[in-house]
Amino acid sequence: MAHFAKIGKGNKVEQVVVVANDVLKDENNIEQETKGVEFLQNLYKSKDIWKQTSYNTRSGNHKLGGTPFRKNLASVGYTYDFTRDAFIPPKPFNSWTLNENTCQWEAPVAYPDDGEFYSWNEANQTWDLAE
């Protein structure tokens, strides 16, 4: 199954839908994103902007070492960045910065690697041990 994100005002993801893979196939049986976009525009009788999204890479699952297609699987509230061709999650805290390679937000201090659970303290800009 293929997933598509509807892009609305401010390039925000408004909806994510699933489309059967067969809908994407062209006359040569090759999947094409444009086929999915056309299907959704006809289905909803609109000219909405749709972008395909996936947790997989272009060549397989990101857990096996690749970068996810369009950096991140889109969710409602994410932003689609046309320049980066990437879905970016909402910024969780003002102090966090965007990692240009992953399009994920990163804290100014690395998460502790000691097996414990922490929550971010924005006021102190520290990771506090979760109770």
Considering the chains and any ligands shown, give keywords for the structure:
131 residues, 2 domains, 3-stranded antiparallel β-sheet, 11% helix
Q: Describe it for me?
A:
With 131 residues, the chain is mainly beta. The protein contains two helices and eleven strands; from the N terminus they run ββααβββββββββ. Strands 2-1-3 form a three-stranded antiparallel β-sheet. A two-stranded antiparallel ribbon has the order 4-5. The protein has a two-stranded antiparallel sheet with strand order 6-7. β8 (97-99) and β9 form a beta hairpin. The mean pLDDT is 92.
**Structural class by SSE content:** mainly beta
Please list the strands of the largest sheet in the order they lie side by side.
2-1-3
Strand count, sense and barrel status of the largest sheet are: 3 strands, antiparallel
Number of helical elements: 2
- Our measurement of the CA-to-CA distance between the termini, rounded to an integer number of angstroms, reads 40 Å
* Cα shape: elongated
Helix content: 10-25%
How much of the residues is beta strand, in percent? Answer: 25-35%
Rg on CA atoms, Å: 18 Å
Weakly predicted, low-confidence segments: none
Write the layout of secondary structure elements.
Layout: E1 2-7, E2 13-19, H1 21-24, H2 33-43, E3 49-53, E4 56-57, E5 60-61, E6 79-81, E7 86-88, E8 97-99, E9 104-106, E10 118-121, E11 126-129
Antiparallel strand pairs: 1-2, 1-3, 4-5, 6-7, 8-9, 10-11
